[in-house]
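Write out this protein's structure.
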Amino acid sequence: MTEPRDVVERQITAYNSHDIDAFAATYAEDVTVHRRDGSRLRGRQALRDTYAGQFAEGRCRAEIVGRLSEGDWVVDHEIAHGLADDPVRVLVAYRVREGLIDRVDFLG
């Protein structure tokens, strides 16, 4: 069985490598992403569509400064680079079920 921490680490590696296919492959087909602005992304294709532009530009990178996990959940304290003029600090909670991320909550 794949550990949730391993799935999230693969997702971060793909994100930092700007590999949209490997990134999307870590998510369930019906993933729900709760974004910081209160909006939601639903489904792997919506996730691909949202991230494709910034991946193509190669401007995003997540620095993990802390990680906790319990059961299906992994919570990362991230510093996101390349999304705004200054780095953005955020907590991101990932729920992993059956080896794929099926829910993401951006906090803060």
